[in-house]
């Protein structure tokens, strides 16, 4: 189970015709279960055979959340006082269960051994390192184009605020973010998008133990991107067909998008109740992420030490990162799978404190000689709706910058009289 909002949002925004196409696909209806939690999957199976009343379902908080998800996807409909599964989805799902080995886009060629192919296992890490350093990494233009299109970097290849937010996502969310972005970039026609999205669903059912070939047309650029991302490994082989050697494009599965890979091996962060941070890593990427919200005091080959401070967190907030994203990131990679409540509370307090403070440029007018001049000035500025703030007791007014010339001219003509 992955339960990714990015997939749900993508499907939700499709036109009704495109949704109908997806919900009529046997491969899609069976594969899409992988994004749901156990409660939602149980509800779908219940709805295959029954039509429970809304009242009976709303008593269970867990079910209420599942209903919201299915409603967003238009997988359920209300008829009278009861809930029904979408008819197209229901019929297609039954057919998919009856035909578990259905193939539309790919066909198995042969079994491979672990020694047959040598993979470059660092492709995705190279992308992450490029985002944080931009140096000494030769990324394919396909990757660069998608990073720019998805606004993770700008035209100068500098990381954006969206890029900083992206870096704090779990890896499986990062994969899907890039895949959906590439799908929209290379398949600008929705019909083409739907076809390639359904091929992704079938791709998720394939085994990494076999070599596969394409039996239906997919977007070449999109699948080249999947290869560059490290999801598949493309190979070409010559086969003898009708006394002629034919070159066929084959591939092997390297990374299953629907598998939420175990993070136990990648836990490397320790945070104490006194806000001290220890990150046991030699990865340039991981060190850069820690530096995003931590004040670093010492850097060693396999360890960085620092502190969470209001200033270091404010620096992260200024880049568009939220307290919840930082907390989720630390929890994901914490050595003990959690962080002290005092640390969580303080991070949230620092963010809320920042939200209470607004900085606006303006011009200060003060030192009025008498109350009458001050009142005239305030009345004029109020008529122009240009007052940011004022202090009547101290006869001080702050006005918006764009009105300064008008106010200055008024002051010269009226108050100087």
From TrEMBL:
Biological processes per GO annotation: nucleotide-excision repair
Keyword DNA damage in annotation: yes
Function recorded in the entry: Component of the general transcription and DNA repair factor IIH (TFIIH) core complex, which is involved in general and transcription-coupled nucleotide excision repair (NER) of damaged DNA and, when complexed to TFIIK, in RNA transcription by RNA polymerase II. In NER, TFIIH acts by opening DNA around the lesion to allow the excision of the damaged oligonucleotide and its replacement by a new DNA fragment. In transcription, TFIIH has an essential role in transcription initiation.
UniProt domain Transcription factor Tfb2 C-terminal: residue ranges: 345-412
GO MF annotation list: ATPase activator activity; double-stranded DNA binding
Protein name, entry field: RNA polymerase II transcription factor B subunit 2
InterPro entries recorded: Tfb2_C (IPR040662), TFIIH_p52/Tfb2 (IPR004598)
Top-level taxonomic group: Eukaryota
Pfam families hit by this protein: Tfb2, Tfb2_C
Keywords, comma-separated and alphabetical: DNA damage, DNA repair, Nucleus, Transcription, Transcription regulation
Xref: Gene3D superfamilies: 3.30.70.2610
Family stated for the protein in its record: Belongs to the TFB2 family.
């Amino acid at each position: 189970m992955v339960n990714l909002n990015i997939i749900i949002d993508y499907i939700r925004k499709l036109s009704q015709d495109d949704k109908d196409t997806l919900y009529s696909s046997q491969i899609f209806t069976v594969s899409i279960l992988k994004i749901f939690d156990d409660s939602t999957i149980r509800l779908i199976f219940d709805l295959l055979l029954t039509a429970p009343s809304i009242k009976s379902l709303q008593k269970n908080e867990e079910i209420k959340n599942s209903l919201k998800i299915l409603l967003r996807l238009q997988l359920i409909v209300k008829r009278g006082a009861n809930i029904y599964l979408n008819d197209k989805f229901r019929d297609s799902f039954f057919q998919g269960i009856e035909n578990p080995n259905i193939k539309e886009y790919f066909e198995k060629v042969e079994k491979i051994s672990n020694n047959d192919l040598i993979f470059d296992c660092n492709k995705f890490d190279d992308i992450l390192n490029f985002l944080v350093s931009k140096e000494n990494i030769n990324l394919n233009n396909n990757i660069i184009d998608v990073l720019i299109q998805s606004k993770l970097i700008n035209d100068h290849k500098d990381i954006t605020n969206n890029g900083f937010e992206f870096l704090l996502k779990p890896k499986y969310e990062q994969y899907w973010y890039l895949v959906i972005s590439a799908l929209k970039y290379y398949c600008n026609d929705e019909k083409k998008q739907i076809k390639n999205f359904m091929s992704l669903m079938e791709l998720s059912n394939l085994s990494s133990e076999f070599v596969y070939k394409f039996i239906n047309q997919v977007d070449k650029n999109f699948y080249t991107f999947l290869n560059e991302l490290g999801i598949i490994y493309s190979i070409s082989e010559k086969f003898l067909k009708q006394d002629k050697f034919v070159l066929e494009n084959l591939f092997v599965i390297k990374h299953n998008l629907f598998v939420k890979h175990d993070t136990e091996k990648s836990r490397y962060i320790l945070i104490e109740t006194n806000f001290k941070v220890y990150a046991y890593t030699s990865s340039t990427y991981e060190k850069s992420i820690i530096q995003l919200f931590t004040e670093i005091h010492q850097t060693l080959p396999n360890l960085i030490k620092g502190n969470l401070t209001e200033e270091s967190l404010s620096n992260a907030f200024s880049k568009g990162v939220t307290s919840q994203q930082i907390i989720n990131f630390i929890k994901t990679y914490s050595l003990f799978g959690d962080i002290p409540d005092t640390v969580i509370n303080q991070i949230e307090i620092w963010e809320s404190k920042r939200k209470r403070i607004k900085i606006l440029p303006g011009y200060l007018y003060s030192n009025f000689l008498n109350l009458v001049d001050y009142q005239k000035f305030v009345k004029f500025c109020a008529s122009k709706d240009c007052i940011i703030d004022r202090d009547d007791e101290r006869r001080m007014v702050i006005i918006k910058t764009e009105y300064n010339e008008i106010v200055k001219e008024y002051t010269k003509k009226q108050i100087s009289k």
